[in-house]
């Protein structure tokens, strides 16, 4: 992507900052972030910062001036937080996204949005295609399903070029933000300290872990595809069990950590794996980072 005027919401966060780093050499980039969990030092000097809440429609409109492409990554990403305080989570994730869609409608910008595998709830079968039943198991999942539908609707009703990407379990450098972190980050920290690796339940649950660099690639493809107004899975199409993950991480760190089993996490999803047929065939998306390599890279660079 080059010579575009781009807005990255949540551009100081985990995925947003990787996107910004990728885009900044060849594009004009504005980062909108409220720095509640994002990190100012992650934003490159050449990016313009708008320090604002995503629900602040005036700030969003200001950030959208001359923008042709939006990568909407700002969100409250914690499933647990959405269960504790659904009203607040809904406001940020749904009302905040509406502010972005409305602002984008005014300037006729393309919007690539962060949707989530959480919309599928407990999938009946894996791999999960985009057409699978949607029965979210958390407020967070329902909020993401809502914005996924809004994206489609804004395309159908208003002709907005909106493309929701349904992220599976994203990992990579810089994931830890605030008190929320993914299992890979948690296990790495435990393994490095030779502390017990805490597997929830029997650890037979599976996840499709996708490296943030592949997520950035999917976003760039979504910014240029002709096939807008529909959603795409972003994963790897492979999965591992949580016990396999614990072993992978223990081996990669040469750790002597013991793998211990704690109580199963309430509402934990059993199986998750993306069906990539649509993303491959329509977007030309192909994951490039194997989990083993992604973990080795995390171990090497820190
Ligand atoms: C992921 C997403 C979340 C949402 C959800 C949809 C991440 C970080 N989160 O949640 O945003 O999209 O998918 O379903 O990608 N685990 C342990 N020990 C630990 C921590 C976790 O065994 O100390 C297990 C956990 O019980 C789960 C798996 O690891 O089975 C992954 O947990 P997670 O919190 O990284 O991500 P997940 O899949 O719950």
UniProtKB/TrEMBL annotation:
Membrane-spanning parts: none
Domain NAD-dependent epimerase/dehydratase: 6-235
Pfam families on file: Epimerase
Domain of life of the organism encoding this protein: Archaea
InterPro entries: Epimerase_deHydtase, NAD(P)-bd_dom_sf
Family: Belongs to the NAD(P)-dependent epimerase/dehydratase family.
Protein name: NAD-dependent epimerase/dehydratase family protein
